[in-house]
Design a protein that fits this description.
single chain, mainly beta, rod-shaped, four-stranded antiparallel β-sheet, 0% helix
């Protein structure tokens, strides 16, 4: 800070400066004209703005003060603000980091929705926010907003989207006819022939630890867990067929399931009824058209 004397009666080196504020220190005068007051300030981790006073004295002049205003040290939350999860995901882990952290202060996350909750927040300067999600087997996807806050930072909103899916666990079959794109889950502990179990194993997904797809239909395996294979047929998928192969932890094939995707096919309302009362589908197994020439 530069200061000037009006009608000085002594040398500039007789100017003295001091402060009673502990965060202002190393005060000294450079005795030039105009004089320069040098000082240092501590980093402001108090969480609030603060002011301090430096007192100037010179010969017989009236004491003069100047005020130092120091803003609070601003932290910054860094996090990806848009997250998507599949219908079968039960855990979502979101990494974050905070610049200029404060001592003994932690990130807080507020999430108000019925299908997701904050399970834990690890780390200080950087870490993981772990969310516990309910499986979404409703008729629609759902959204929520999680607000992250830190005492010395602007809050950040994180947008969460969870896609919906269909649980086919109550249906036991070798072949599953699907007519809409989306997420699906089948019970991989039951063979299509009705055998109630593929082996005496626990419920942590050891029955199916891997899955493969074959055929001309693109199927994305989402998860193999708790005796279920979850998969997604993308929106742009064309009608076709795929094979899901369930394997154990040693990659031994336990069973396979035929996924027959015939987009928008209504099997019941397009079936043919014969005079004897028999009801027969109007296409062959695995067909993608009711045109017999195709």
């Amino acid at each position: 800070v530069r200061i000037s004397l009006v009608r000085p009666v002594a040398a500039y080196r007789q100017i003295t400066a001091s402060s009673t504020d502990e965060w202002i220190h190393n005060i000294h005068i450079e005795p030039v004209e105009p004089a320069i007051v040098h000082f240092s300030v501590d980093r402001n981790d108090s969480g609030d703005n603060r002011t301090g006073i430096v007192r100037l004295e010179y010969a017989t002049a009236k004491e003069s003060n100047f005020i130092i205003f120091q803003s609070k040290n601003l932290s910054c939350i860094s996090v990806e603000t848009d997250w998507e999860s599949e219908f079968c995901n039960e855990i979502l882990e979101i990494p974050y980091s905070i610049s200029d952290i404060l001592a003994s202060v932690h990130l807080e996350a507020k999430l108000e929705c019925s299908w997701a909750k904050v399970e834990s927040i690890s780390g200080e300067e950087e870490g993981i926010i772990t969310l516990k999600l309910d499986r979404n087997v409703t008729n629609a996807g759902r959204k929520a907003v999680m607000t992250l806050s830190y005492p010395n930072a602007d809050p950040v909103d994180v947008n969460l989207t969870q896609y919906n899916g269909t649980d086919l666990s109550d249906k036991k079959a070798n072949c599953f006819l699907i007519n809409k794109p989306g997420g699906y889950s089948i019970d991989s502990s039951v063979k299509g022939n009705g055998n109630p179990s593929l082996g005496d194993v626990d419920l942590k997904g050891k029955i199916v630890s891997a899955a493969l797809t074959e055929g001309n239909l693109t199927v994305k395996i989402l998860e193999c867990k708790d005796k279920h294979i979850s998969f997604r047929i993308p929106d742009d998928a064309v009608s076709g067929n795929a094979i899901l192969e369930g394997m154990d932890k040693d990659n031994k094939t336990l069973w396979s399931w035929h996924i027959w995707y015939y987009k928008d096919f209504d099997a019941e309302n397009t079936a043919d009824t014969y005079n004897n009362g028999s009801i027969v589908m109007n296409c062959n197994l695995g067909a993608t058209s009711d045109n017999w020439e195709k």
